[in-house]
Amino acid sequence: RATMKSLRFISAEAFVSNAEFARKSLRGVAHNLFPLLFKASYLLEQGEVIHDLVENWPLVDFNMGKLLGTTVDCQEDLSHRTCSVCLESCLTGLRDYVLNHPSPYVKRLKVVDLTGIKDVEVQFCECKKTMGRWARTQLLSELCLELLVCLQQTQCNPSTFEISIDVLIDLFVTERNYELVAQALLKKCYCPLKICCVAFRSDNLALQKFFYIIKLTDPSLLRKLEIVHNVRLEMEHLEILFNSMHFPLLMSLTLPARTFNVRRFTATDERMLTNIGEKMGEMTQLTELSISFSILTGRIQKLLSPLKTPLKMLDVSNCSLNHADMAYLANSFHANHLEALDLSGHNIPDLYPSIFFKLLSHSSSVLRSLTLEDCNIQDTHVNMLILALSPCQKLQEFKFLGNPLSSQALKHLFTFLCELPMLKNVEFPVPRDCYPIGITYPIDDASLCRFDHQKYESVAEELKLILLQANREDVKASTPLFGSYDAAVQETNNELGAYLIKSFKETLEKFTTSLNKMS
């Protein structure tokens, strides 16, 4: 793919393309050329050159997002390339920066920022091997512990012990890498590379371990906290978390399914929910909240009204919201600031069509992403939906999988979607007429793939033709049957699967034991 490159960048590519020559010549390279050579090496996947550049880094900071992003010399953004060769070379180079005694440069490096790396579905690197967030967490932890062993075993230059480099990273911890990461965080004060956790994601982890490791990360520095799959955090645990730790910089919070369940609420639970809302109100930076698959009927106001900063992203999918909840959202100060909204799993057309109109009209000037999956939107509702979406001229992403819409209705909707100038991504359902007659919605996983694939392909082509004829080739339209790509789940799906099988086995064993006792 052609991309704009300056003569300087082309020269840098030529220089690093001969790895042996480049490595020998680094001593004579001006300091201000290191960032240019780093990006050129990354583009060409010259692992050895990347290692040596980082090992001899002469500058005060090393920011991956800035180094790999769009620059004057090379407009191509490489920050979404999580190339295994490049990233491993980069991190081992960082370890050797600490251990390298005869470096010709004064060691000035103070901050390494790895948070600008973006994990995406399609990789353009030649090696096609990626190093995701979990693997980056694993490798950095390994290298920190390795460094400590090296410093203890070898005769190090005394100045080595004075090196202190903050390494900003988004950590991803599961049962499988928990011990390693916990050890690295526990010994952080003795290691020249200081792991500074900016964002933390946890999957497949026992609650006790989650509480221990979150304390080790230093919650006062956290900007993003994601507690996602198979962490059995319920409301009482969330209250303990918020009462025992402070998150002054937290901007984004994702809670696991079933954190809240108002159907079995007692007076104590009501007080607990009020306290959690108040604690969230103290997080003055909080602008993103995901609480999907909790039962929050009639309690959204209690949870969100204490917030002092308006939310820009809200995911309340499958939260069993009622009319009062939707009315609160539509009339709250959050509505005018919502850039991303997920209302999936709610029967919007039947339960609260007018309130939905109001909510979208209030957020229309800023709304960029809207998800309405499994919302029972049928052919008779398409004109209403078009009317509601018309003011949303900044909408970039619209996802509406799982709705019982016919091919004809989808064509009508796509003709309108062509008019939204900023739209880039659409996720649409398999048309209802591609499924056998009598299919019920929401469709269960077993029936999801049982549709006429040939007919679907034909309809998908017609929809793409509508985009093409409107000169909207820039819009990507797709039907990811099992939901959007999740880099974290993709990277740890084997562990996730094993955990689910283990949980199922334990449940069966308990059930069998109960039956035996009864008999």
UniProtKB/TrEMBL annotation:
<keyword id="KW-0677">Repeat</keyword>
<comment type="similarity">
    <text>Belongs to the PRAME family. LRRC14 subfamily.</text>
</comment>
<dbReference type="GO" id="GO:0005737">
    <property type="term" value="C:cytoplasm"/>
</dbReference>
<dbReference type="InterPro" id="IPR032675">
    <property type="entry name" value="LRR_dom_sf"/>
</dbReference>
<keyword id="KW-0433">Leucine-rich repeat</keyword>
<dbReference type="InterPro" id="IPR050694">
    <property type="entry name" value="LRRC14/PRAME"/>
</dbReference>
<protein>
    <recommendedName>
        <fullName>Leucine-rich repeat-containing protein 14B</fullName>
    </recommendedName>
</protein>
